[in-house]
Amino acid sequence: MLLIDKIAYENRLIELSPGLKSILYLVLLMICFLTPPVIQGSISLIIGITTIYVTRVKVRRYFKWLLVPAPFLVISILTILFSISPRSGGFIFELSLFNHFLGITRASLTTGTRLFFRSFSCLICTYFFILTVPFNQILLVMKRAHFPTLLIELTMLMYRFIFIFADEFLIIKRAQDMRFGYRGIKNSYQSLGALTKILFFQTFDRFNKMILSLEMKFFDGDFPL
């Protein structure tokens, strides 16, 4: 079981209706999309503290999880903040670059700030949802909301393959570490290439075994949900 699943099954709100938590999550997302940065920041602080208390997650670990999508958020914001112009002027900060000017305008700064607070607040709310609602309850909510059966089954299979992928990765990585496969740059590149190759074939092998086991149980194409 992944750590996120373990936390979701042991959080303080496990007895609360998953449908109610899903509605709360959607309402929070709407608020984060429609409100100004001040309210978005307040929601991030309140929901973040609530998540830490409800899930009993250490503050340090929680902030580490928040850093996972940070590179994507930073890149998105930088592409909005900076603009290039052949003329100087209109920038609150500028750099000369190959007869052009790279800088930040007031409009791009405002847009970037709004994007940051909106994305960050939505991320905080999403963490609250996934850390308080176990996956089987998410499938139940999707079924009650009349999502297409095919979509629910695909979601379940994708989630299952996360476990398969993570399990195979840890086994191969542990074996390489025991053989000092990541000592030195050259060995690290070789081990990383071997890890990628073996992981690809092992994942497909596990997939074929799963299909074989389903056929032995007279699988007719529909998963009982």
From TrEMBL:
Record lineage: Bacteria, Bacillati, Bacillota, Bacilli, Lactobacillales
Protein name (database record): Cobalt ECF transporter T component CbiQ
Pfam families: CbiQ
Compartments where found: Cell membrane
Superkingdom, taxonomy of origin: Bacteria
Membrane topology term: Multi-pass membrane protein
NCBIfam families: ECF_T_CbiQ
Transmembrane segments: 23-53, 65-84, 90-109, 116-135, 147-170
PANTHER family, A to Z: COBALT TRANSPORT PROTEIN CBIQ (PTHR43723:SF1)
Keyword Magnesium: no
Protein keywords: Cell membrane, Membrane, Transmembrane, Transmembrane helix
